[in-house]
Write a structure and sequence with these properties.
By secondary structure, the protein is of the alpha/beta class. The chain has 2 domains: 267 residues, Aldehyde Dehydrogenase, Chain A, domain 1; 184 residues, Aldehyde Dehydrogenase, Chain A, domain 2. Helix content is 38%, strand content 19%. The protein is built from 17 helices and 19 strands. The strands form 5 sheets. Strands 13-14-15-12-11-16-17 form a 7-stranded mixed sheet, sandwiched between helices. It has a 6-stranded mixed sheet with strand order 8-7-6-9-10-18, sandwiched between helices. Strands 1-2 form a two-stranded antiparallel ribbon. Strand 9, helix 10 and strand 10 form a beta-alpha-beta unit. Helix 3 runs antiparallel to helix 6 and helix 4 packs across helix 5. The structure holds nicotinamide-adenine-dinucleotide. The site of nicotinamide-adenine-dinucleotide has 32 residues, from helix 9 and helix 10.
Amino acid sequence: MVATPLDHLMLIGGSRVAARDGRWIDSFNPASGGIWARIPRATAEDVGEAVSAASQAFRAGPWPDMQAAERALLMLRLADLVEQDIERLALAETSDNGKPLWEAISQVGRVPKWLRYFAGLSDKQAGDLLPPEQNGILAYTSREPLGVVAAITPWNVPLLLLTWKLAPALVAGNTIVVKPSEIASVSTLLLADLINQAGFPPGVINIVTGYGSEAGTALVAHKDVAKVSFTGSEATGRRIAQTAGDGLKRVTLELGGKSPQIVFSDADLDAAARGISAGIFLASGQTCSAGSRLLVQRSVHKALLDRLSTLCSRAIVGNPLDRRTHLGPLGSKEQLEKVTSYISLGRSEGARCFIDGSRIRVPGFEEGWFCGPTIFTDVDSRMRIAQEEIFGPVLAMIAFDSEEEALHLANDTPYGLAAGIWTQDVGRALQLAPLIQAGTIYANMFRGVSPAAPTGGYKASGIGRENGMDAVREYQQTKTTWANLSSPVADPFPPTSI
Ligand code: NAD
């Protein structure tokens, strides 16, 4: 079944399988532009088998009868196995999406922490005892799983973002069909071995690979999928919400962003420059919460720009396997074309391209898809480079004069994922926080994530929350049970005395 040593197999009902019709998708290494692996191209038929395995595992077999603590044990075993295999999994991510290896190691390295946090929540899921309606009546709620969950993930952070779905969905007792991005599926397929070694019953976790327009649509539309948990672009999120709506399925949608970073004149500008650079240039800006919209008080505009320029001049763009590299290549050729076309667009819209990373050439990697830090100044909030998610290392600087103007600009986008506020007056930051329409606010920092911290979007950035206690609720439904213990049952047709 494995045609070449480059091939990786799916996981359906506990078995490693290729697509039934034997078709494959090439996976490209963004640093070299060459093919480095192949993944199965699943069709609706393969997806149907995976959903059927997940339905079977949800209804019968060991999974539905397991105590919460037993499920937690499987998650803890998986956490240990991932921890022993971080380098291999991270190397697969770097080979697939071009992220510097040190960054991929750091992201995959967080997976065990997330699995352990949610494993710890497993046996703490309780319902409520409801206030009595009358004496002798007991009423309580219990939290039940939904059934088969479809988890659809993007290419930029494959395993960690999958864990944000997998862990709470398992805690709640669901079974899962995962569909990773066709651009970066290999680390998820490698995880399949570890899932089997951890001892998950067959069918509890299934992994199908393929195109979004083929395997993805079939999965979302499948009648036996109860919930779709999706991380990806706004456009795909809208399509998924429509299909899920037709089937009355629940959704969690973690979508794109155009997150503002607000810098007031009293900010520690050195710290702000570091936080802003990390927030937009690390991962080459391919982060949903990238702080791509820099709002800076006019009086410190030049001082901040000087600091950002100095930092950018030190950024090393190059071989993602070299530990000194800060920015690897972009995730795909299409992504490079998209980012460079936005850089041209910014110029034609009248912004000033103060630093242009699109001209970068990396010796020895002439076919790679590289783009370095790029900074636009003189940006107007209405320009497309200030409104649309570029998903690349491109920063748009907008000057403001008053706090009121800063607040207006911060909310002047369709998105609402995150926002950063830089000021030494923490009171001011905390007063602004509730006025900014974003799911996460950072004051004098940016890009913090934790398994305990709910994350998600306002407006076009999505629906629902991942992480924290809230996340498990996204995969549960509430049942209310009433029991009459000692109350007389009233006669509905009492005899009349006429
Ligand atoms: P994408 O929307 O192109 O693809 C995401 C996933 O959806 C892939 O697995 C793809 O195969 C699948 N897909 C595509 N079309 C589909 C369809 N019609 N039905 C079902 N599945 C379909 O996104 P991407 O390019 O992989 O990822 C980048 C985007 O993800 C950016 O917009 C980024 O902001 C967003 N993102 C958001 C978060 C967050 O937490 N909010 C995190 C990371 C990335």
